Records
---
Amino acid sequence: MAQGKRHALITGSSRGIGRGIALALAADSVKIAIHYYRNESAARDTLAQVRKRGADGVLVQADVTDPAQITAMFGKLKAEFGKLDVFVSNARPEVPEFFRPPLEITLKQWDAAFDSQAKAFLVGVREALPLMGDGGRIFAITYAEGSRTGGLQPWVGMGSAKAAMESLVRYFAVAVAKRGITVNALSPGWTEDSVLNTLPEQAQDLIRNWHASGWTPMGRLGTPEDIGNVVALFCSDKARWITGQVIYVDGGASLMNPEVPPEIQIG
Ligand SMILES: NC(=O)c1ccc[n+]([C@@H]2O[C@H](COP(=O)([O-])OP(=O)(O)OC[C@H]3O[C@@H](n4cnc5c(N)ncnc54)[C@H](OP(=O)(O)O)[C@@H]3O)[C@@H](O)[C@H]2O)c1
């Protein structure tokens, strides 16, 4: 990616994983567009933390399930930044807006999943590309376990939407390869300081203990900083030959065999 002053837009960077990505790029002096939906105070807090790292940024607001609002957000970005080096599609609606099993999910919930993931990525990338010079970086934040499996039944809408987005990653990667722009999906495992912390305490404890006891070979959940660091790594020119991939960023959790209890696997 071209060096000099770099600019990034991270959707859903008011909190959670998006914030971790914003702070990791800020530590590399990237100017950040911090996107939020309803939580302006959280976005302001991210901006304060970006500034503490010696970078700067602006706030942008949009409902990513509405393509017109995505287009308006990029219009603002063009006026503020004039260019873009990194685009991260990370935002995801609140869980009740899509979380329902296949026999019950409403079409509204199905649309919330697809509009916020596959369609928002389609629209966002097409808006980002005219602002991007050769060597730009595009990321989709996915949850590949949800797009590959069927066990967590109420995830059907989001899992299907993430699968469609992962497919788009491959098509876009080919479409922009000649410009040296890379397009990759990053798949975090369960991550602290994110949607996890909105679950009931008992569910949080079950998930944490399961991972600490071996399901994640590294013995802990991920952090927004872990995910942000990988985005920063991929923004290096040294990552220019990796494109169109789904990269697991999960401390090894995806290596475990779901048919065998972890105690036996790790020995
Ligand atoms: N957390 C995990 O363990 C985990 C694991 C794998 C993958 N992921 C993926 O990582 C991404 C971030 O997850 P997270 O847990 O960090 O999220 P989170 O903490 O729940 O934050 C969600 C973010 O999305 C924004 N948002 C919500 N609804 C929106 C809408 N309609 N339009 C635009 N923005 C909207 C929120 O903005 P406001 O603050 O303004 O509401 C917030 O910035 C998601 O794509 C998720 O699927 C997460």
---
Amino acid sequence: MPESDHLVRAITKNNAFRAIAVSTRDLTEEARQRHNLSHTAVVALGRTLACGLLLCYTLKKTKGHLTLKLKGDGPLGSIIVDSSNEGTVRGYISNPQVEVFDKKGYVDIDKAIGKTGYVHVIYDNEDSMPYQGSVEIISGEVADDVVNYLARSEQIPSFLSCGVYLEPKTGKVLHAGGMLIQALPEAKEEDIKVVEETLSKLDPYSLLLRSGLTIDKTIKKGLSDFEVEIVSEFEGLCFYCGCSQKKFEDAIGGLSKDEISNIIETIGYAEGRCHFCNNKYLIKKEQLEKYLN
Ligand SMILES: [Zn+2]
């Protein structure tokens, strides 16, 4: 199994269940550093990054992007993740420095995200109209909310577990990932009961990873009553944002001459920051003046 972030797909030999698992430690740590995330924010965004990738690889057959947005009434504000089934993901959170701890000193994710609000999913296939769906937030824990989305909006009964484990002092990401198990049409009622029973007793995902299990082993543990076959693996999941200085210049260059003159007179330069990756872009006065000619 590779050390870097990767994805594993599996199926049970009786064709009753399929599963996808992702390891997302490095890309979650990159998100933490880029956005200077609090402990609470990195757990919330890290779970959503894993779920965004799992959803993208589950719902999308062709090339394209999936946006997963959690808009709760908690202090973190909105969480937005954009994933592609080429293994890239990026995301941000409205209030990245907020901390919410419970009485025992653990991050309190449902309180931080909020138990009221919406889960929005948009997927864009490039060659067809974008599809949108949304459901109400039921838990604020991320995984349960995505499962509820799959059940309500897509009519797919699913089990999803995801987790982020941090180095307690520094907040550095030590483990992150998630797993999605879905019943296929071949699944018998008793098969589903067996899996539900096993999964209800399973440790939280961050603990499974912390105990040293690789993601293929987490699938095998979740489907321990069945013979599991690994169908494919993909290495190279990564945090990636397509923004660039050129795109920023194109956006500013597309403004009206009045608007550009106004920027030159009031600020003297144009500065932009990408929400998704926190990269900053700058256009100096001399270049702004060129847009006027
Ligand atoms: Zn960016």
---
Amino acid sequence: MNNIPKIPTIFLDRDGVLNNNSELYYTTKKEDFVWVDGVFENLRALISAGYQLVIISNQGGVAKGNFSIEELNELNAWIYKTLIGQKIEIKAIYCCPHHNHVGNCFCRKPKSLFIERAIHRYHVDVNRSVMIGDSQRDIGAAEMVGVKGILVEANKNWKNSIEQLLK
Ligand SMILES: [Mg+2]
Ligand SMILES: [Zn+2]
């Protein structure tokens, strides 16, 4: 196991980073999913710079009964396929279906369980990895395990925020 090279990784929040997300409602269907400006170009640039991509998302609407785990899985499959069509491979999509209004769990950001899981499974080089998120919860989860966070403005092209990573 030790001879497997460690891979720099970009952890991506979904809503506000990939999906132009209104705070008013949950995005549950592909028809409501609006890609953030520049996101395909930005993800391709990160892959070209040697990063692998992992999505880590809180989807508490499942616990609250707003949508089902099947709908979430279907949307995730569509996200994965759409990105493949854009020549972007996502290694994994981790979603926490729980919500702290309903009960406790170990995976809702700012908890770091999914990031830790991905670190082991995908041989992540922690020191050269970054979480891109639009919420302090995203950054907190990453920093808990020593991954640097980049806080971006929700629903805006984050091209300028990744310039340093592409050098
Ligand atoms: Mg977000
Ligand atoms: Zn959870």
